[in-house]
Structure formats: structure tokens, C-alpha cells
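User: We ran a pulldown and think these components assemble together. Before we commit to crystallization trials, I'd like a predicted model of the whole complex to look at. Sequences follow.
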Amino acid sequence: MLPLDHVIGLSAILFVLGVIGAVTRRNLIVILMSIELMLNAVNLAFVGFNRAWPGSSAAPQLDGQVFVLVVICVAAAEVAVGLGIVIAMFRNRDSVNIEEVSLLKW
Amino acid sequence: MSASVMLFYAFSIMAVISALGMILNVRNTVAAAMSLVVTMVALAGIYVLLGAHLIAVIQIIVYAGAIVVLFLFVVMLLNLRSDEFAPSRQRWLKIFATALGVVVLAQLLRLLEGSLPVTPPLPEGYGGYRQLGIALYTDYILVVEMVALLLLAAIVGALILAKRKID
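Assistant: Here's a predicted model for the assembly, 273 residues in total across the polymer chains.
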């Protein structure tokens, strides 16, 4: 049997790596990839907790896995819109560096 | 240590190393996308070990098959050779953010150690398409409808954003 705390630990490590990538990188495409990594870390936590409380075979508890499916769909929608924004930005600024689009920055 | 636990650690190391390769690769965006594929495939292997077979298949089809291909498509469409940006003006902010993330991670891992139950044996048919499909189309039918609406909105939004000019 897999140790659940190690599964959740792996999820935490991947999430922090995604946060670090999203904060430190300046390439907009790599930032989107880091967001994907964070969503995947959350999915892993959902699947791990669902595995720890699976219900019985008469009444299975699959809430975690249904959540994972929803998160995957949201990630697909987010990537489609995000890459549309990347293309629009590249068309206007000729770059995917986020420091080129800092007008709203404090 | 059983074979599945050893496989779990192998997949974990693979996922973490390729995620590191993705965020540390400042030269080549295509290589970063390929590292992301390796992370996704390793996570799919972990899902199989956790008994979520349908989720593992969908992970490979949607993430490794569709989303990363979309990333590669955009990278090649925009013809990005490498991201040769000038040195950042906010180096200290980034170092501070990274250090803060590592501290939070260390605290989280310290709290996690041994605080969660051991996984129980699996019931019959757990994680297969049959049980998941029944759950989706009975208890979660509203969620399915809402996701369908969200995907439609995303399609329209992406088309409008990527269009050259709205005429």
C-alpha cells in the first residue's frame, strides 16, 4: 500500500515548483506551463485523498476523481484562452516577455 | 518494500526532476514543454498505482496529448528561438519568493510526516469507467453541464483573442 503522506508530499513539492516557476520566469508560455504544473499537483492530491477514502464496492466514493476530471477540463479551457492571449500579445509587442506588458503594474 | 511502492518513488523522482527541468530551462521553450510531458506521464503512472485508471488514461490523452501539443504549436507558430531576455531588474524579489516557497514547503512536509492514514484495500471496480461514469451522470450531472458551458465559452474566447481583427 502506498504511503499517503508521501503522495501528498509529492503534490506539495510539485505545487511549490509551479509557484516558483510562475513567479520567477518571464516567458509567458513557461508561466502558463507552471500553472499547468500547479493544477496537476492539486489533481494528485485529489486522487491521493480519494484513494485513502474509497468507500465500499456497493457505494463507491468517487468525488475526488470527479473533481480531477473537472480540473482537467478547466485546465484545457485555461490553456486555450491563455495561448490566445499569448498570440495576441506577440502580435502587438513582438515578444512574450511579461515585462513588456507592465502598464498595470504597481 | 513492494514493487508498487518502488514504482511510486521512481515516478515521483521522474516527475520532480522533469518539473525542475521545466522551470530551470531558460534557453529553450520547446525543451521545457517536453519536460512538462515527462511530468504528466509520470503523474499518470502514479494515478495507475493509486487505482485511478480512467484518470490516468485521460491525463495522458488530454495533458500529454492535447495541452502540451497546443503549447508546442504556439511556440513554433511564434517562432521563438530562445527567450533571450535582458537580465531582470527584480532579482532580489525572485530570490526572496523562491526562499519563501521553500520554507513553506519544508513546513508542509514536516506537518505531513506520518499524519495521514495508510491507504485501505480497494473495493471492486474502483476508478474504472463504469463507476466514474455512473457518478458523473447521476450525482454530478450539473457539473458536467457547467463544464460543457465553460468549454464552449473558452472556444469562443480563444477564437476571438487569436483572430487578427474583428470585422
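Chain B has a mean pLDDT of 85. That may be worth checking against your pulldown data before setting up trials.

User: Thanks, that helps.
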